[in-house]
Sequence to fold (309 residues):
Amino acid sequence: MFQTGIDLKQHSNYKIGGQARHFYVAKNIDGITKAVEKAKKEKLPIFILGGGTNLLINDKGFDGLVLKPEIKKLQVSGVKCQVGAGVLISDLLNFCVEKGLSGLEWAGGLPGTVGGAIRGNAGAFGGEIKDSIMEVVSLDIFGKTPKNIKRDNSKCQFGYRNSIFKVNDGKEVVLETTLALKKGDKKAIRAAIEEKIKYRQERQPLEYPNIGSIFKNIDLRLVPKKLHGELAHVIKTDPFPVVPTAHLISECGLKGVSWGGAMISPKHPNFIVNVLDAKAEDVKILIKLVKAGVKEKFGIKLEEEIIYV
Fold:
């Protein structure tokens, strides 16, 4: 049932990481359930893999089961859209254009899967995935036998790049969601999505393997008040007032600093890019360097947005 010795570099946007002891792609809920039951019987730790777009995978790999759900359900009834966790954000946006459904234009150019976006409450340009979610169905894999859980939006505990699924890390698998969208003009929807894609291409180092922003932006309420005047010109709403971490890293003079095969991007310093067959340890060293630099200069503690495996 399980594949063995799968190179996880193949499943990471970063092209970094060792091998999975066991690997399984589940095409439906039944497949996920059977894989979980088998792993638990063999006392294997389980890691749920989405699109691999925000993961820093250990150089030693994962000594357990890497489970990749690929539920590709995509159905619409009026303005309600049922979406499987394995659907790529890009495919969902193309579907929205085709059906004339508005509400997700902010996600233009966002990598990864719907399941990953729900887990981390993905957001950009003032929008977040929670804004469109009616309910989420997940599989509780923590108990003796897996069971489905259905939550409405209010019970998902969405926060800034956070949700109950992230809090319950490793205990639940997101299966699908129901989105509430609205009717819109197809050309206008496509134009808005393409605008966001172009913005990302111009300002982010997408020419190198990367896993997006390494750190969360900083809630303005957590920034020492003595710095508010100095940072006033860079404050943005995302979806509440934040200080862009990229600015702080730049002010620390860390743009372009490299270690091993990894580099703090000169184009967007909240990206650490894989420029020369980097190892996970190379990235971790740069993460420590950035955190120490920002803490020393601004007195601000950065929090990673990425997931360590």
